[in-house]
Sequence to fold (286 residues):
Amino acid sequence: MKLKDIYNQKKTPVISYEVFPPKDDTDGQKLENLFEELTKLLVFKPSLISVTYGAGGSNRNESVEIIKRIKEELKVTPMPHFTCVSTSTKNISEYLKTIESFEVKNILALRGDMPKEGNVCHDFKHADELVQYIKDNTNLSVAIAGYPEGHKECESFEKDLYYLKQKADKGADVIYTQMFFNTEHYFSFVEKCRKLKITQPIIPGILPVSSYNQILKMADMCKVEIPSKMKETLEKHQEDKDYTKKYGIEYASQQCNELLKNDVKGLHFYTLNKSHAVSEILKNIL
Ligand code: FAD
Fold:
């Protein structure tokens, strides 16, 4: 099913999950674990499962294998992510042909993080050029990334929105957001996008917190605010893993309820390849 049809369904919220190809998986056990976890999440009838793509294209093959299995074994619509920053037009063209040959219908088009050194290919400078290329050369439906608190490199929030509009206008069907912990940032972002006539569904990305140190690192890397009360609570209980996980589930459930009250079309869960937290959240909110 194409993204447009998925988000035009009457039944809402549309549930989707993000997973990543397991690292250092020489015996393939981590991949099997991932499929066990995803199987547990099928009960919530996801409409889409997206698979991240490593910087530099290092895990292209694993990503393609996972996409095939999501489609064939789980019978769920897969969506590969694809980054263009370190890849030539020729490689991009080959990759797109490969996934279309598996009857993949959707793709999340990204620039990717700039590598610290070497391996930058200048064929595509920003994601909007990749969106244009995909629209011109394939039948794929295209999703793009949006940043409720602004992208970490942007000179100003307004400039970032201007570029988002440019990227959306090249033919994107859906926008998936970066995680956020202050839900007001999402609402304000959507309002500003609508003023700029960005009309695509803007699907919030939800990350259930499971570790204080991990969330500090991720928030810092992505320049995302951790509200002070949340930070205090997580810091105080950082040694208590069970408490932290329970708190993360409660916090994300509250966020989802607030979003649903405001008629979001879907919820996109950053699963980190685990089912428990997402499963508990979905039991709380559906
Ligand atoms: P762009 O849209 O190109 O934006 C990058 C920066 O450039 C922004 O600051 C923007 O304001 C600016 N900009 C945009 N267009 C122009 C222009 N024409 N001229 C000048 N400046 C411009 N990374 C991975 O490596 N693999 C993944 O699988 C992955 N999945 C992701 C999924 C989601 C939902 C999100 C939100 C992010 C994901 N990322 C992933 C991270 C992403 O690759 C990084 O945030 C990257 O730095 C930006 O990618 P982009 O597609 O948003 O870039």
Observations:
- Residues 5 and 169 are 19 Å apart (CA to CA).
- The mean pLDDT is 94.
